[in-house]
Amino acid sequence: MSQSAAAELPIPMSQGIRTKQLDRYFYTGMTIALMLTVFAGFARTYFLKQYYGTPALSPLVHLHGLVFSSWMILLLIQTTLVAASQIRVHRQLGIAGAVIVVLMVVLGTVTAIKAAALGHAPPGAPPLPFLAIPLFEMITFPTLVAAGFYYRRRPDFHKRLMLLATISISAAAVARLPLAILRFGPPAFFGLTDLFIVAIACYDLITRRRIHPATACGGAFVVASQVLRVAVSGTTAWHAFATWLTQWAA
């Protein structure tokens, strides 16, 4: 190796160490931000409901909230383990994550259908059209998690896909934040949710000088599912399908 080549070697190594350090801060910070968003969105109706005097929740809704909260906690634990280089434990806990995902999809689907059958929906949102929002989430979320599991040995893909999967189910919390802009409905709360995707893309540009393929493809998948939901929810076909679904839960 020439002297000039040897002199250049520490530069990419130091850049790699710096990127790993930035990753720890970024992904931990994003996870905490998502957890705070979920807490703030559901504080009045779930986490702090005893202080707000909101109506009592059914056992199904309590179980739904417990399982979805477990995912957020697990995501923080997993992110912390990676930051601490505890990869072996991180992979072992992935089994628990798979179980939680299955429970989330089942409970999320059943709870959404039951809520629509009872006429429950965010203020100003008709229950049957709104049902498209959570049901499509139960497709988008496990798809991204499955992709993340497939790329489990590619950390750069894995961590982005898992974060995007969590972002995809965060719209429900964002829609419940006490913000005036949310009176505009799905375009508003989806738009605010997608700021998390923008944050990942910006981080990619800062650290990699280009958007990572997982960010581009996963982010586009989330946004496309949002557009599809809004487009489908007002159609006659969806109304008929949602009516048929809710009849089973009545």
How would you sum up this structure, described in words?
- The N terminus is likely disordered.
- The protein has 13 helices and no strands.
- It is globular, with a radius of gyration of 20 Å.
- α5 packs across α13.
- Helices cover about 80% and strands about 0% of the residues.
- It has one domain.
- It has about 250 residues and is an all-alpha fold.
Describe the protein's topology.
Elements: H1 3-8, H2 10-47, H3 49-52, H4 59-83, H5 87-117, H6 127-130, H7 132-150, H8 155-168, H9 171-174, H10 186-193, H11 195-208, H12 213-233, H13 236-249
Helix pairs in contact: 2-4, 2-8, 4-5, 5-7, 5-13, 7-8, 7-12, 8-12
- Uncertain runs are 1-11
* Beta-strand fraction estimate: under 5%
The N- and C-terminal alpha carbons lie at a distance of 75 Å
Task: Count helical runs.
Answer: 13
Q: Report the helical percentage.
A: over 70%
- Secondary-structure-derived class: mainly alpha
Order of helices and strands: HHHHHHHHHHHHH
Mean pLDDT: 90
The geometry reads as globular
Number of strands: 0
Quick synopsis:
This protein has 250 residues and is mostly helical. 81% of the residues lie in helices and 0% in strands. The model is unreliable at 1-11 (pLDDT under 50).
